[in-house]
Amino acid sequence: QVQVSESGGGLVQAGGSLRLSCTASGFSFGEQAMGWFRQAPGKEREGVSCIGWTGSNLYYANSVKGRFTISRDNAKNTVYLQMNSLKPEDTAMYYCATAYFSSTFCRSPSNSWGQGTQVTVSS
């Protein structure tokens, strides 16, 4: 059974930084692309960033390019999202999940999501 656990969210002022972590189990983590997704109140969930199983292939939504960095540690079954220069519009619940992606999109086939971690950026 696929399980993920996200952590690292919090309340931060605009311009600040946070590092999200996601630990996964129940599948071959080192052979699976992973992604970070977010959902703000009243909005659809969107793919923020995806990373291939080797860590070489990456995707970033235009809204976070140059500010967010995704990485993974396959030995720890963990994927990270370093978020710098945070903006109020980054406020959302952030989730990690298995993913598939190209240069133009980042999506998840998952029907089951973790509890997420809340990121709130004050202006």
Plain-language structure description:
The protein has no helices and twelve strands. A six-stranded mixed β-sheet has the order 2-12-9-4-5-6, with no helix packed on it. The mean pLDDT is 96. With 123 residues, the chain is an all-beta fold. The chain is 0% helix and 50% strand. It is globular and about 40 Å long.
Secondary-structure map with pairings?
Layout lengths: L2 E5 L2 E4 L4 E8 L8 E6 L6 E6 L6 E3 L7 E6 L4 E6 L8 E7 L1 E2 L4 E2 L9 E6 L1
Parallel strand pairs: 2-12
Antiparallel strand pairs: 1-3, 3-8, 4-5, 4-9, 5-6, 7-8, 9-12, 10-11
- Approximately what portion of the residues adopt beta-strand conformation? over 45%
Q: From the helix content, strand content and strand pairing, which structural class follows? A: mainly beta
Could you give a short account of the major beta sheet?
6 strands, mixed
Uncertain stretches: none
Mean pLDDT: 96
The proportion of residues forming helix, as a percent range, comes to under 10%
Give the CA-CA distance, first to last residue. 40 Å
**Rounded Rg:** 13 Å
Looking across the biggest beta sheet, what order are the strands in? 2-12-9-4-5-6
Helix run count: 0
Shape summary: globular
Number of strands: 12
The quaternary structure here is single chain
Order of helices and strands: EEEEEEEEEEEE
